[in-house]
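Standup notes
- HV: blocked on the assembly model, inputs below
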Amino acid sequence: MSNNKFFKTNNPGVFVESPGRINLIGEHTDYNHGFVMPTAIDKKIYFELRKNDTPTACTIYSKTFNTRLNFDLRIIEKSSSTWENYILGVVNELQKSGKKLEGFDCYIKSELPIGAGISSSAALECGLASGLNKLFELNLSKQEIVNLSQAAENNFVGSQCGIMDQYASVMSTKDHLILLDCLSLEAEFIPANFKSCKILLINSKISHSIADGEYNTRRKECESGLKIIRDQNEEVETLRDVTLELLDSCKSQLSEKQYHRVLYVLQENKRVLEAANFMRSGNLQSFGKLMYQSHYGLRNLYEVSCKELDFLVKFSEEKDFIYGSRMMGGGFGGCTINLIEEEDIADFTEEVAIAYKNEFNIIPEMITVVPGEGTLVKGGKNKKVRSGKLEYREKSEKDKYPENEQPK
Ligand code: GLA
């Protein structure tokens, strides 16, 4: 189905390009008030939205799933399908905050693999929120779009995710990494100086879903660990106030799991700040070593890796043209992120694909990405989006509908 067949009105369209994200380092630190280093990528979800001249009827068409979601703005109920809940969650948060919507239709087309840890969910939430913001002139700031998209995921989908994915999807600037302090939300945009290297993602094709319990369990383990430390030390508010010495002095009161989770977070925060220095000074070798250490922490202390991801990271580690590799995102599957010399990508991807297939009988997916711009929104008649993927130009009624679907 083309988007022109889908829309039944000639109202002006709003076009949104909403990117996925990578995270160089700083995993599971966002909801622990720590540091992260993500950026948006050049792979996106594309939206076209139009008002449909009804007060409350909405239709969303997903080309990826080839399905339609019909709903009424007055009755927003949880669906059994996850992608629908991202949509409904955003609409719900907007209406909860008093924003006035009317009936609209939306056509969505994605080039982001799902469950690969590159945050197709945040791209979906933030893209829709940005589109509705423009369509209904809601006057939301970018930060408000980030916050309400995260709230949609927390409250409606039920995943207690942090703010990293939504922040990166909306706020990124091209060719930069964001060093984000998730406590103060201060951000520094560091030039992504990868020199002769590129970022290669290897999709293990093990599909994760952070809505599954493990993600929320990790979050609870950190919170309960923090509470025990706080009970002994009044000045501690978040894990940012906890030093390694303080953690060790509380070790006997913590379960082994709580100790390991908190230890990982403290170490990872330190790594992110060190990595930022190495990126600023262009020391990719040292930057990459921190990526490997991050992976070991995620595997051994935070326990969110899996054998397929470990295999891919180990394979990379044996290559001197790969400076760093680690699992990326929530874990339990998805992609590894690799900092690799560009000239070696072709041979390496062939070699690792064969080895991975031999080991797991799965063909991995290779995705090279570049740091891209955050959400782009365009609207109105005769406007064209930059990529031209979902362009809309005013057409005559006759052009717009196929012969057998001409409006009466
Ligand atoms: C998911 C969440 C993020 C973050 C990462 C792990 O992507 O949505 O908020 O916690 O996992 O770093």
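- HV (later): unblocked. The chain is about 40% helix and 20% strand. The chain has two domains: 3-191+371-400, 197-369.
- Next: hand off to the docking folks.
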